[in-house]
Amino acid sequence: MKTRRFSLLTAAATVLGLTGVIVPGAADSYAASGVALPIAHFSHLLVDAAHGHLFFSGGAGTDGILVTDLDGGDATTIGGEPGATGLALSDDGSTLYAALPDQDAIAAISTDTLAETARYGTGADTRPDSLAVAGGTLWFGYGAAAGTGGIGSVDTAGTVKTARDSGSWAGSPMLATTPTPSGALVAAVQTGDTSAFVTYRIADGGALTRQAAQTEPIPDLTDFAVTADGQDVAVASSQNVFANRLRFSDLAREGTFANALGAPALAVAPDGTLAGWDGRAYLTAPVSGSGFYGEHLIDDALRPAAHGLAWAPDASRLYAVAVDPAGGAPTLQLTRSPETAAVRIIGLDTEPLAPGEPLSFTAVFDSTLSLDAGDNGQLPGSVRITRYDDAHPDGVAVPDATRVPASPSATFGTYGIHDTAPLTGTLSYRVDYSGGGHYAPATRTFDVPLAKYKPTLTLSAPATGNRAAPLAVTGQLTWPHAHLTTGTVHVVKKDAAHPSGYTLPAVTPAADGTFTVHDTPQVGSTNTYTVTYDGGTAYLPVTSSATVQVARATPALSVTTNAGAYRSGATAKVTAHLGTTYNSRTVTLYSQPAGKSRTQLRTGRVDSSGNLVATVKVTRNTTFTAVFAGDYRYAPRTATHSVTLTPAVTRTQLQWPLATTRIGATTYQVFYKSEVNMGYNLEVTPHQSTGCMSVYVERYTSGAWHQVTSRKCVPLYSDGWYGYSRALKLFADNGRYRLRGHYTPPSTGAQTGSVWSGWTYLTVRPGTP
Question: Are 645 and 691 in contact (CB under 8 A)?
Answer without folding.
Answer: no
